[in-house]
Design brief:
Distance between the termini: 56 Å
Number of helices: 3
Structural class: mainly alpha
Shape: elongated
Largest sheet: none
Radius of gyration: 27 Å
Helix content: 55-70%
Strand content: under 5%
């Protein structure tokens, strides 16, 4: 919403000296939509960065021992099947 208003304000300033109403409408339309697309891009990228861990998402564990521990599904699968004999040993 903020970017839409910013785009509208910028387009009004730019189109002040244009003669035809068609050019004013077209320029305002383009600026508002470009600012909306930029706002959607920023919204999705911030959500992506929070999910991936590049930005702080506010989740903190009170006790470190209760933190999430990953479970290795591949090792569990290999231990229960014949593939455990073909595993590369360190």
């Amino acid at each position: 919403m903020v970017l839409t208003k910013l785009g509208f304000g910028l387009s009004v300033i730019i189109t002040r000296r244009m003669n035809t109403l068609y050019l004013k409408f077209f320029t305002t339309h383009c600026y508002m939509h470009s600012f909306n697309v930029f706002g959607l891009y920023v919204m999705f990228m911030c959500s992506y960065y929070r999910l991936v861990g590049y930005m702080d998402n506010g989740l903190r564990w009170k006790k470190p021992d209760r933190a999430f521990k990953k479970f290795d599904f591949t090792k569990d699968f290999e231990d229960r099947t014949i593939w455990k004999y073909f595993r590369e040993r360190p």
